[in-house]
TrEMBL record:
InterPro entries in the cross-refs: ArsR-like_HTH, HTH_ArsR_DNA-bd_dom, Ptyr_pPase, Ptyr_pPase_sf, WH-like_DNA-bd_sf, WH_DNA-bd_sf
Top-rank taxon: Bacteria
Protein's recorded name: Arsenate reductase
Source organism (scientific name): Thalassobacter stenotrophicus
Gene responsible for this protein: arsC
Pfam families: LMWPc
EC number from the UniProt entry: 1.20.4.-
GO molecular function, one term: oxidoreductase activity
């Protein structure tokens, strides 16, 4: 990245509103986000957000794509990588006292056991189903995996339809409980190797970075609890669809050849799983 492009990118990120917008887009990367969802998450007016997004696109830090009548904004990973390289390698001259601490914090997962954490807003349905699924499917993996889940909102309770769906599919639900994310952010909490958000609200939340920077990805799943139908049949069908989607993605995760993948390739696979859906029919 040349100095002109770096100056433009740094100037764009020098505004708190644009920086907050870019940080949110990074949490969804490489997926795109609608402006309405960004405005809600950041509590900013639509016209203000429009200026922020326009500036990010003009600087090359963000992309915008149209899908039908909707616009989706996403991070330009190549430009973001170039900016970080400019700061660390060009301006910073790759000084060991600058680079070494970053490299040490990005230590790859060991050969196991690995801790995998699923996060959603309430830890009542999607993330708790993901925890049970991974817990019961992981024994077939060559690497020992410990599954957990948490919510960003306190005082949640398990959704009875989620519990019923898990039980109907043969999962033991006796030890499942709703947990707040702070339980996993304590100094003595286990290191997380993988952290996946399964709802947009959790991904949009600006939380502190995880210690030792685990692999992260957004595996957004529609909220089955938002269904307004009054019939048990509809509720059961929607939760069954959620279960099937989560099982599909977790199965794909467990099939990854972890030891054969570089960190970049592994991240690419994790991102791809977040948009993968079961084939119909």
């Amino acid at each position: 990245m040349d100095t002109t492009l770096a100056t433009r990118a740094l100037s764009t990120l020098g505004h708190p509103g644009r920086l907050a917008t870019f940080r949110l887009l990074m949490r969804f990367a490489p997926q795109g986000v609608r402006p309405t969802e960004i405005a809600t998450a950041l509590a900013v007016k639509q016209n203000t957000l429009s200026h922020h997004l326009s500036d990010l696109v003009a600087s090359g830090l963000a992309n915008v794509d149209r899908d039908g009548r909707s616009l989706f904004y996403s991070v330009n990973i190549e430009v973001a990588e170039a900016l970080l390289s400019y700061l660390a390698l060009d301006m910073g001259r790759a000084r060991p006292d600058l680079i070494a601490p970053i490299q040490a914090s990005l230590a790859a997962p060991s050969n196991g056991p690995w801790n995998v954490l699923f996060i959603c807003s309430k830890n009542s349905a999607r993330s708790i189903m993901a925890e049970a699924l991974l817990r019961d499917l992981a024994p077939n993996s060559p690497v020992q995996i410990r599954a957990a889940s948490a919510g960003t909102l306190p005082n949640s309770t398990l959704n009875p339809w989620a519990i019923e769906t898990l039980a109907r599919n043969g999962h033991d639900t006796s030890n499942l409980r709703a947990k707040h994310i702070t339980e996993f952010q304590q100094p003595d909490a286990p290191r997380q190797d993988f952290v996946f958000t399964v709802c947009d609200a959790a991904a949009a939340r600006d939380c502190a970075p995880w210690p030792r920077h685990p692999f992260t990805a957004h595996w957004g799943v529609p909220d089955p609890a938002s269904n307004t139908s009054d019939t048990d049949t509809d509720h059961a069908a929607i939760f069954a669809q959620t279960y099937a989607l989560l099982r599909h993605r977790i199965t794909a995760f467990l099939k990854l050849p972890f030891t054969a993948l570089s960190p970049i390739c592994l991240q690419t696979h994790l991102d791809a799983i977040g948009t993968d859906t079961p084939k119909q029919g």
